[in-house]
Specification:
Helix 1 packs parallel to helix 5. The protein has helices at about 15-30, 70-85, 105-110, 155-165, 190-210; strands spanning about 5-10, 35-40, 90-95, 135-140, 170-175. It has a single domain (about 5-210), classed as Rossmann fold. By secondary structure, the chain is of the alpha/beta class. The protein has a five-stranded parallel β-sheet with strand order 2-1-3-4-5, with helices on both faces. The chain has five helices and five strands; from the N terminus they run βαβαβαβαβα. Bound molecules: flavin mononucleotide.
Length: about 210
């Protein structure tokens, strides 16, 4: 039966918009029946360390003779890889932090984007995650509309599309909600209606996507 790996990375446990949307996705997923199982890993509450050794970027057989890795670090990486490989669908809450990814999510990527394991390299042509689905939920305080100057400032979604889509071969869906700071920032008061509409649309789309994704 299909299994979902659910990652959140917002550092805001009280008002997180991305967590609300991933929760909506979980409702839709679980609503399909008891066989639609979930592993949740809160990367903020239980963060991966920064990658402790560059040798972990390579599958064990691709490391040089001098690259001897701490067994505890190797076991931790194996755990993250096992969680990912067991998932038919990956759900990632990815807020924009300083135009980029939360460092916890980046550390997770650094552990699972492994040449010769999750990514083809040399004579290793396997792509074990190819064809599976990934859903990225990206919340951001401001807006980065395609027609605006700020469109090119988004360095949150593009690296996830590269890693999950281009490298792993997953089919990536992106749910974006913008202007999440409108309620908090007085200068954004006139944008509150649009922010609320984007949040509603994101929750509805997440729940609907979860009901049909496989
Ligand atoms: C450390 C930090 C950096 C942020 N940097 C940006 C940014 O570069 N651009 C932006 O639009 N919003 C930025 N924000 C606002 C968040 O993207 C916004 O609050 C978003 O809703 C966070 O996701 P969450 O609601 O799931 O916690 C930042 C927030 C934090 C805490």
């Amino acid at each position: 039966m299909p299994h979902l790996l659910h990652l959140d990375s917002s550092a805001d446990p009280r008002h997180s918009s991305s967590r609300e949307v991933t929760a909506a996705f979980l409702r839709g997923w679980r609503g399909r029946g008891p066989g639609f199982t979930v592993t949740s890993h809160d990367l903020h509450a239980d963060p991966p360390p920064h990658l402790p050794d560059a040798a972990l970027h390579w599958a064990p057989r691709l490391r040089t003779a001098g690259e001897v890795v701490d067994p505890a670090a190797e076991a931790r990486q194996r755990h993250y890889l096992d969680e990912l490989m067991a998932a038919d669908v990956l759900l990632v809450g990815a807020p924009m932090y300083n135009w980029s990814l939360p460092s916890t999510l980046k550390a997770w990527i650094d552990h699972v984007h492994v040449l010769g394991t999750t990514v083809p390299f040399g004579d290793y042509e396997a792509r074990p995650l190819a064809g599976r689905s990934a859903v990225v939920v990206s919340s951001r305080g401001a807006s980065y509309d395609a027609e605006g100057e700020q469109a090119s400032w988004d360095h949150t979604v593009p690296p996830l599309e590269l890693v999950l889509g281009r490298s792993f071969g997953m089919t990536v869906s992106v749910i974006t909600l913008q202007l999440t700071l409108a309620d908090r920032v007085p200068a954004m008061a006139d944008l509150r209606g649009r922010a609320a509409a984007e949040a509603d649309a994101a929750r509805s789309y997440a729940e609907e996507l979860a009901e049909r994704i496989g």
